[in-house]
Backbone:
């Protein structure tokens, strides 16, 4: 039996981390063995790369270098964790994956999409999430939630236009791949967001 891969995506503060546990529990309640992970990160090596990408360093991180680090982390994550889990029939639940790369490095940073397409082909060799839930809010709402929570990393200090471009890429990818992506309005109260998540997961499971 081969496992399935589900990703949660969206901009800063939309509620991905908050809802990961909810989705995991819903899957586990259906008897599914879940491997919950995140990107960048998910293995010891990939978490070290995550620190390089997120920490505000003394030396500027060029955009292309950032992109390559993210794919380097993904390569370790895929070979050392995601593929082995899927091969053992586990379901991988991942906080961000390839859509974040198109949104942040392609949309936000403005790197050519063709480079990302080529790296995706090379690193992922066709592996894509089976289901992606895009939590979407107007940018100001997510950033306000982050401000209330306190602390910020290299991305959270970007300008509004960066997130506007990233959001447009997220939404356009979801529109182009409706069989894989579901968009949830995450600006509503958490209980309503989780009602939608429960329905999405139950519908997905009903197809097995
Ligand atoms: N990145 C990642 C790339 O640039 N390219 C890539 O390819 C990949 C994979 C990762 C960074 O890496 C970048 C993007 C990211 O900037 P991260 O910390 O994993 O960083 O991701 P963040 O989005 O920064 O994580 P956050 O924790 O900031 O956002 P979440 O997880 O979406 O938000 P969450 O769940 O922590 O919630 C934020 C606050 O809002 C509240 C929560 O209680 C919390 O206080 N909240 C709500 N409040 C009211 N109503 C609701 N519905 C709420 N939902 C949550």
Residues:
């Amino acid at each position: 039996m081969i496992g399935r891969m589900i990703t949660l995506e969206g901009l800063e503060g939309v509620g991905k981390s908050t809802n990961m546990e909810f989705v995991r529990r819903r899957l586990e309640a259906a008897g599914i063995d879940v491997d919950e992970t995140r990107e960048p990160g998910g293995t010891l090596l990939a978490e070290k790369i995550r620190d390089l990408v997120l920490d505000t360093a003394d030396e500027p991180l060029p955009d292309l270098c950032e992109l390559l680090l993210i794919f380097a982390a993904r390569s370790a994550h895929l070979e050392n964790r995601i593929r082995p889990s899927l091969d053992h029939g586990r379901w991988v639940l991942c906080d961000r994956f390839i859509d974040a790369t198109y949104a942040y490095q392609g949309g936000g940073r403005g790197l050519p999409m063709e480079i990302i397409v080529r790296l995706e082909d090379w690193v992922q060799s066709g592996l894509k999430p089976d289901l992606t839930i895009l939590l979407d809010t107007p940018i100001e709402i997510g950033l306000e939630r982050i401000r209330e929570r306190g602390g910020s990393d290299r991305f959270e200090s970007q300008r509004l236009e960066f997130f506007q471009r990233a959001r447009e890429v997220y939404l356009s990818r979801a529109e182009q791949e409706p069989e894989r992506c579901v968009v949830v309005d995450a600006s509503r109260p958490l209980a309503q967001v989780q009602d939608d998540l429960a329905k999405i997961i139950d519908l997905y499971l009903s197809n097995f």
